[in-house]
Design a protein that fits this description.
Length: about 210
């Protein structure tokens, strides 16, 4: 008998200090891995130049955001650099149920919250190979004022201390190679015994 049941997708959490180049790496990973979907977060932060509502973030005012929070619409949420950021629950659940692998690009606190609630989530920490690169990349981006830049730099170095809590570290010296690493991690996870328990049970004991 044909089994039409869609296999649930994989939840993938990607974090790393500002300036780690997560966005570029992920863009390449999406090219390589068509089953991957990006979870667009909700934020109260003002849009940066070139950012598009519904693509980069869903930009909301504080009242709209608080209503969503009150209505339990977030899978997790955090205040980062004085702005709120939340992962929309229903959208993520729908993508997972439809068999897509979903990437949450979120801060370390939010990531650890996800891991505590979804043990099966794959945690990937993306980082440059040295501290100077973090500073250089943050400055190059220079969308923030000097004061804000200092705050981001400080918390980037704080975030590095949390890296060992992740399942995988991807050192981003080369965005294309790092994207290969991410694709390889996802593939390996799909073959892990932990993710194939149901399959193995059927294989051993039969049934549908
Ligand atoms: P940015 O303002 O530079 O786009 O993002 C600032 C930080 O917020 C980054 O570390 C980013 O990963 C994190 N972030 C973005 N969306 C979310 C979210 O939905 N939840 C959490 N916890 N962090 C988020």
């Amino acid at each position: 008998m044909e089994n039409n049941k869609v296999q649930k997708g994989q939840l993938i959490v990607v974090s790393g200090p500002s300036g780690a180049g997560k966005g570029t790496v992920l863009a390449h990973a999406f090219d390589r891995y068509p089953n991957l979907r990006y979870s667009v977060s909700v934020t109260t932060r003002a849009p940066r130049e070139k950012e598009v509502d519904g693509v980069d973030y869903y930009f909301k005012n504080i009242d709209e955001y608080m209503k969503m929070l009150h209505d339990n619409e977030f899978l997790e949420h955090q205040c980062v650099y004085g702005n709120y950021y939340g992962t929309p629950r229903k959208k993520v659940e729908a993508m997972l149920d439809n068999g897509y692998d979903v990437v949450l690009e979120i801060d370390v606190k939010g990531a650890l919250e996800i891991k505590s609630r979804f043990a099966e989530a794959v945690m990937i920490f993306v980082t440059p190979s040295d501290r100077a690169t973090i500073e250089e990349r943050l400055r190059k981006r220079s969308t923030e004022k000097e004061e804000e830049l200092m705050v981001r730099m400080g918390s980037a170095f704080e975030e590095l201390k949390q890296a060992e809590k992740y399942d995988y570290i991807v050192v981003n010296d080369d965005a294309e190679r790092s994207a290969d690493d991410i694709a390889a991690i996802i593939r390996a996870e799909k073959c892990s015994t932990g993710k194939n328990k149901e399959f193995l049970n059927k294989l051993i004991y039969g049934g549908n």
